[in-house]
What we know:
Helix content is about 25%, strand content about 30%. Among the domains are: about 1-50 and about 100-120, Gcn5-related N-acetyltransferase (GNAT) (Aminopeptidase); about 50-95, no CATH class. The chain is built from five helices and nine strands. Strand 5 and strand 6 form a beta hairpin. The chain has a four-stranded antiparallel β-sheet, with helices on both faces. Strands 7-9-8 form a three-stranded antiparallel β-sheet, with helices on one face. By secondary structure, the chain is α+β, with helices and mostly antiparallel strands.
Amino acid sequence: MIxxxxxxxxxxxxxxxxxxxxxxxxxxxxxxNLHYLYPETFLVYVNLSxxxxxxxxxxxxxxxxxxxxxxxxxxxxxGPEGRNLDAVERVDINxxxxxxxxxxIIFSRDGHIISIxxxxxxRRKHIATKFLQKAMKTxxxxxxxxxxxxxxxxxxxxxxxxxxxxxxxxxxYYGNEDALIIERTLVKKLS
Length: 191
């Protein structure tokens, strides 16, 4: 599922960033600034998965789904005011789905893809494709473009498969490496 970035996603984004761009990763301040500049077009891909145990009749499982945890190592003994609560304690568990951030895209209102990255363990699962499709469906955009390292043949092949073409070169864009400018003109259907 694709949704807008929120500041609680930052730690996950930083991990993906450092794994995806070890030569020049963005830092937390950069991401927060990009979120400030592009709140509608800073998007994350999340995998919703639940971590609840299978519903069964055991008291331990029932207690977990009710926000309680039974500690089997502790014996029941009289607690405050004569209640037997020592072995049962309230814990803050999330009974709903947990989100795992698998990637992100940031693009400007005029179609410049500022950054896109997918967690290495989740690549080749069409996540980046879904990001680009989402960006290309933005109503007012006439084109989408990005910079790609000349040495990044995987990214070049991906963008080529998505219909992008190399339209230019920026010498030493990445310090000691050129960037290829890749672009795709968007054709909008008339309603």
